[in-house]
Task: structure prediction
Amino acid sequence: MLKVENLRKYFGGIKAVDNVSFEVRENSITALIGPNGSGKTTLFNLISGVIEKDSGKIILDKKNITNCSVNKISNIGVSRIFQKSRLFSNLSVRENLLIAIDNEDLKFWKNFLNKNKITREKESKVKKMLKLVEMSEFENKKASELSYGQKRLIELGRAILNPHKILLLDEPVAGVTPRLRNEISKLLTKMREEGETILLIEHDMNFALNLADNVIVMDEGKIIASGKPEKIKNNKKVLNAYLGE
Amino acid sequence: MIIEYFIHLFILIGIYLILALSLQLSVGFTGLLNLGHVAFFAIGAYTAALLTLNGVPFLIAFLAAGIIAMIFGFILVIPTNKLKGDYLALATLGFSFVVYAVTLNYTSLTRGPLGLPGIPKPSILGVTFSSNLSFLILTIIIAGITYFIIKRITESQFGKVFEAIRDDELVAKTLGKNTFKMKGYSLGISAFFAGIAGSLYASYITFIDPSSFTIMQLIPILCIVIIGGLASLKGTLVATIILVLLPEPLRFIGFPSSIIGPMRQIIYALILLLILIYKPKGFYGKVELT
Result:
């Protein structure tokens, strides 16, 4: 589904992403783990087009997306959430979700002539998503009035509603309560069963290893190990880099 | 006499309302700190003045004023696309200085500091709006249409994309929105209405010169937008009426005219300061000024 080949990004002398290659299989959860500053978020930013690569190639579903703009990459099929909550703070929860569903809202005349009505189908997608993340009663609340955990859930819902082939989730459970962490874990497992492909950055090694089908471990911009969670758990290199053991 | 005076004030309210509503679209709704608005006003005024002075019917000149200003609005997005906040404000301010310099120095077209006198009063389908009362009716109609159009845009899903860009442009991009195009729409539509306001102003005063389009003319419009409240059309309407009428009593106190001008600026500055301290969202604002 997603293929990254020899991807490289240096910031001055810092090798943020150094000759990284990997593949994410369709219908799977791949966890990207590693210590702080190992290049995980930079890799996400490169895949989603937020920053430009120095060299390398990114292929999504046989399409080369390496030099595409952020919005084009999104329209080809990459949907992501950021490390920190980034909802549209002055829009309501409902508006935050509606905006992700399609790009009909970019057509001036269609909207001006009131022909882009919120259809029952869109309405039901929003309601379903709110039910899925157990946030139905907050539909008309302004996004800035939500708690951090609630914001993360809506952000996750928005990324899921954004038409996509792969979901990039940057620490979706960081800073949320253990109960919410379990909820998100269940939700992601359910999504994989329904055919989603997910690439996930996670600091909590146990969370990542329990959830993922495959694990990629990064350190100092390089991939130091990859494979099944059981294999990664006992990898000495990983333990050394990640836990300092 | 007093009625004529009030008619004049309400015409000014109408023209300021069109300018403030259109600035609200780019500043309040899309988050583009656009200080080039007065340049679009100037482009509209000069376009309409030059066309009507050369015998072009008012209605065509009026629409051309909006369209030419709109084209400049679209063009301005190209060099400023990656700029945000203060940097965008500076770049757009630079644009207004360029337009001012052109109106001042391109004398073969604009007559420079001598200005363009004798701009005809509007005439549409044989009806000439030569009296101030008829001009007021025309202004109210155009301001009303402007209010309706901008309300319609901002309440649609299209308008929600503007607000998304204001709140977080990068996230809007990651949801597949072409923010370059949308910012072009925002500045273009905003410039269109500033252009038609310029056309109305030129045909009302019947004389324009570069001094009518300096940064000093932008300050009251920007004050209206902030005091009325960002992303609020109702607030813009209320603030326009208050800010145009508030300095008027100064005329009756007996101050010399050389003091009335600076006093107006002081009043605007004071209100702005008090609003920012005690009501940072303005009268009806949805968004805090950051």
